[in-house]
Amino acid sequence: MTRNQNADSRAAEHSATQWAAPVTELAVFATTPDSFISTWNRGAAAIYGYTAEEIIGRHASILLPDDSHEREAFEVELRHARENGSSVIEAWRKRKDGSVLWASVVTIALEDPNGAPIGYLKLVRDESEKRKAHEAVIESERRFRLLVDGVSDYAIYMLSYMDASRFAR
Length: 169
What we know:
The chain has about 170 residues and is of the alpha+beta class. It has helices at about 5-15, 40-50, 50-55, 70-85, 130-150, 160-165; strands at about 25-30, 35-40, 85-95, 100-110, 115-125. It has a 5-stranded antiparallel sheet, sandwiched between helices. Strand 1 (about 25-30) and strand 2 form a beta hairpin. The chain starts with a helix and ends with a helix. GO terms for molecular function: kinase activity. Keywords: Kinase, Transferase.
């Protein structure tokens, strides 16, 4: 890479992430083509627990759980972004303290004006609470089905709020 190309790639990377610096509810960061973190916003610090000083220059695999499946999915995600311009997945990610979070991850392939790859832009939202709520609904439905399936000598009637209000008069 020539000196001008290197300067162009840094300028493109900077313009792609400068708007996101103050955002706190969304992690926005850029990586080099070989996945070394090059920018880090406040949202990334809030979600992952690393300061910019701690994480910039480190490989993005530090944000992955130790599970080999997640590491393979990470490589597929990057390949898909390279081939299609972007990729969107939901996957487990790892915080500085070792805890995991369920994340919605958008990966955008960044290119210089000549079309040469200069890295990736990552947009990450912590969806852990949403996933917990979804799992709670599934568990509630499972328990309800066990209850209903266990009833054989009685009838179970289900009334909605609107149906019940008709009988209350």
